[in-house]
Amino acid sequence: MLHSSLYGKVIHLEPNTLHICMTMLLAQPGLFHWSLYMVDTNGIATRYHWTTDVARASRDLPYEHFQYYTVNPVMEINDTLNQNLAFIRLDAYQLKPDTTPESFALHIQGIFETSYNNVRQNREAKISCRTWLLAALQKLRQVGYLALTSEEVCSLERKAINIAKEVEDNIAESITVKVTSI
Q: Is pLDDT above 90 for 169?
């Protein structure tokens, strides 16, 4: 549980919502880590993302993988000590009855059938957290979680980047996390 001042302030996300989370990558301004946060009826968030497999047993195994886990509470600084820049609530999200973190994950865990053993090959194959998230949003649209057209889902990419860049550009002025909706 993250409650240390090391993680900044608690971010309150409304129950029954879905958010795109944009996280700062310190090595490359203007590039972000992309993840989804689904908040259940009790206000507990689950993070879904395509991420580096830090526990892989061998360099021959996939470098990245799908992962999801509960985040309670949601903080300005995440569990890997990276700055969350924006939580962008998707107003088109339609919660289905009896949705659990596990049932939600079933729809998006197989977005990429493979992952290579290094980041270069993954990026050449268009495998990244951004492409995973955009494909996951399309899948969620197809199964009825998002009341959007395919084109509207595609437009979310530019909107999310613009919001994250705005916060990143103003981070020195103590504007840390933006909670907004699109």
A: no
